[in-house]
Design brief:
Oligomer: single chain
Radius of gyration: 20 Å
Strand content: 25-35%
Number of helices: 10
Number of strands: 26
CATH superfamily of the largest domain: Metal-dependent hydrolases
Shape: globular
Bound molecules: zinc ion
Number of domains: 2
CATH architecture of the largest domain: Alpha-Beta Barrel
């Protein structure tokens, strides 16, 4: 049976168009002004709604109370399902710094989950760390940070050949450029993460596979003064170098709207990947002022719509959904089609997920309907409706 979506304003690569979309066997079969369909076909009426490609979250640690770090496939499925209800139809579960055997087990858990039925497509794993700078720890566990030159990462990268799609590392650490070369050789995207590098060090890293910046502004070095001279850092390099794409936590808390606008002004619509950086607490119900303990033992408090370390000196990952991030970008004045592109096409392209992130014939049928207020009304993943019109409203 085919499904035909009629009446919606579709966010197509070439612009927003009123058109009809036919879905069959989990793929988009056709996109046209009028497509022929048979009486037995299922018709979805999208009048007055925007039809968007499903969101692709390439940096998310957990959701719905479950973490990607547990090593259990069922936890990974549960976190992916929690995000899918909010429009994330493809997901790259992301690890935090931890001992190598624990990371290996986590990757294997994600790998097993990817073979099981799930509402979101698990596209692989993203390793955030463990080779991160002790000077830019953020909410990563300081005891678990590693120096690449002193760490054999091969067992970790071999835990899922072809499945590890991205790794975040600080390129200024000893051995980190060789690590970049190794990642490039394996087809793994190297992202500059939790880094205290100078601008010059970032430029050098470009020749060693580093091509992306993890959550720009968060745990990134910025300009400092050394004697009379100003030395720019990762933030300025991320904004200024065309060779770098940037991941942006657009929960509206990590970065004020003014900084989101500045990033958009510098990077344009095609070099920004929205991410949630969601913790296990994301996409769930949280109580203001409550202390929650992360799996790695770090204690965090939920305050003002975000998780903070108890010291309140640092955020500890977000509780956002990708839908909230798109909304925040729209509030920052970014045109809807571009905000959605940053949540779908750009992250899909970054990790080489060729059938994701766009509404076009041959692409996976990952589709969302949103109303004029950008409330999410309906979610289809792989041709299957996973959230229908009568589902209760969620935050
Ligand atoms: Zn993260």
């Amino acid at each position: 049976m085919k499904t035909v979506i009629v009446g919606a304003k579709a966010l197509l690569p070439e612009g927003i168009r009123q058109c009809q979309i036919i879905v069959e066997n989990g793929r988009i079969l056709d996109v046209a002004e009028h497509v022929p369909f048979a009486p037995e076909d299922r018709v979805i009426r999208g009048s007055g709604l925007y039809l968007c490609p499903g969101f692709v979250d390439i940096h998310v640690h957990g959701g719905g109370g479950f973490s990607a770090m547990s090593g259990k496939a069922e936890d990974v499925i549960a976190m992916a399902n929690a995000h899918a209800r909010h429009g994330t139809t493809s997901i790259l579960p992301t690890t935090l710094a931890a001992p190598i055997p624990i990371l290996r087990a986590a990757v294997q858990g994600i790998r097993r989950a990817a073979e099981l039925p799930c509402d979101a497509d698990i596209l692989g794993a993203h390793l955030e760390g463990p080779c991160l700078s002790p000077a830019q720890t953020g909410a990563q566990s300081p005891d678990d940070l590693k120096i690449p030159a002193e760490t054999d990462l091969t067992p970790l990268l071999d835990a899922w050949p072809g499945g590890v799609r991205m790794m975040g590392a600080a390129p200024e650490l000893p051995g980190a450029l060789a690590l970049g070369d190794q990642l490039m050789g394996r087809g793994i995207v190297a992202s500059i993460a939790h880094s205290n590098a100078t601008y010059d060090q970032v430029e050098e890293a470009l020749d060693h596979g580093y091509c992306d910046v993890t959550h720009l502004y968060s745990s990134c070095s910025g300009m400092i003064r050394v004697h009379s001279y100003r030395v720019p850092g990762v933030i300025e390099a991320g904004l200024n170098l065309d060779a770098l794409t940037v991941q942006v936590i657009a929960d509206g808390k990590h970065l004020p709207l003014s900084l989101l606008q500045l990033i958009y002004r510098c990077k344009g619509a095609e070099k920004i990947e929205l991410i949630t950086d969601g913790l296990e607490f994301a996409a769930g119900n949280l109580v203001e002022g409550t202390v929650y303990r992360q799996l790695n033992g770090v204690e965090t408090v939920y305050e003002d719509g975000v998780m903070k370390l108890l010291s309140r000196e640092s955020f500890a990952g977000s509780v956002a959904t990708m839908h909230r991030c798109v909304r925040t970008m729209a509030q920052a004045g970014v045109p809807l089609i571009q905000a959605v592109r940053m949540a779908s096409e750009n992250p899909a392209r970054r990790i080489g997920a060729a059938r994701k992130g766009r509404i076009a014939p041959g692409m996976d049928a990952d589709l969302l309907l949103m109303d004029e207020n950008l409330d999410l009304k309906w979610v289809m993943a792989g041709g299957r409706v996973i959230r229908d019109f009568d589902a209760p409203e969620e935050a």
